[in-house]
């Protein structure tokens, strides 16, 4: 079995914890819990005839009061950069975090996760902004931790990118 550390990175309240809960436990809660420090979960998936044990590090969201401890990132094989599609500023924060993560880890596989796709009526991120990110060569996947849309796809796609590494 192959074991890989994956970090969940993004601004506060983007849905990182909810994505992990949906993926690992198939649950969603309307209650908001702030992650303090880091929460670690595990799930094994099958990719390309390999069993891949993902160690998921759900790192507290960053805001102006808290800075992501870059030491949490060490040893990561990849990461999910999580954005709340109903808050455009979380996309800008994701660009900043991506640069900082890359400075720390170097180039490792990552996916830009556009979360809360079930709330498209409140969506703030323009299609042109998403297209620009895709033009940069980034993998972008729309998800909803609430209804499960795209959640399995995100983790399987990242797992495949890591194995193809």
Automatic annotation (TrEMBL):
<dbReference type="Pfam" id="PF00071">
    <property type="entry name" value="Ras"/>
</dbReference>
<keyword id="KW-0342">GTP-binding</keyword>
<dbReference type="InterPro" id="IPR001806">
    <property type="entry name" value="Small_GTPase"/>
</dbReference>
<dbReference type="InterPro" id="IPR050227">
    <property type="entry name" value="Rab"/>
</dbReference>
<dbReference type="GO" id="GO:0003924">
    <property type="term" value="F:GTPase activity"/>
</dbReference>
<keyword id="KW-0547">Nucleotide-binding</keyword>
<dbReference type="InterPro" id="IPR027417">
    <property type="entry name" value="P-loop_NTPase"/>
</dbReference>
<dbReference type="GO" id="GO:0005525">
    <property type="term" value="F:GTP binding"/>
</dbReference>
<protein>
    <submittedName>
        <fullName>GTP-binding protein</fullName>
    </submittedName>
</protein>
<dbReference type="InterPro" id="IPR005225">
    <property type="entry name" value="Small_GTP-bd"/>
</dbReference>
């Amino acid at each position: 079995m192959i074991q890989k550390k994956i970090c969940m990175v993004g601004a506060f309240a983007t849905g990182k914890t909810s994505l992990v809960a949906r993926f690992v436990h198939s649950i969603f809660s309307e209650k908001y819990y702030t992650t303090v420090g880091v929460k670690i979960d595990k799930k094994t998936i099958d990719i390309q005839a390999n069993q891949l044990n993902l160690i998921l590090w759900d790192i507290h969201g960053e805001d102006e009061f808290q800075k992501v401890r870059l030491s949490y990132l060490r040893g990561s094989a990849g990461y999910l950069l999580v954005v709340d599609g109903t808050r455009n500023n979380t996309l800008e924060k994701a660009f900043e975090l991506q640069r900082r993560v890359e400075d720390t880890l170097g180039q490792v596989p990552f996916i830009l996760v556009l979360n809360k796709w079930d709330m498209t009526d409140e969506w703030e991120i323009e299609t042109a902004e998403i297209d620009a990110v895709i033009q940069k060569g980034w993998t972008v996947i729309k998800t909803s931790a609430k209804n499960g849309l795209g959640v399995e796809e995100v983790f399987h796609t990242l797992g495949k990118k890591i194995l193809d590494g």
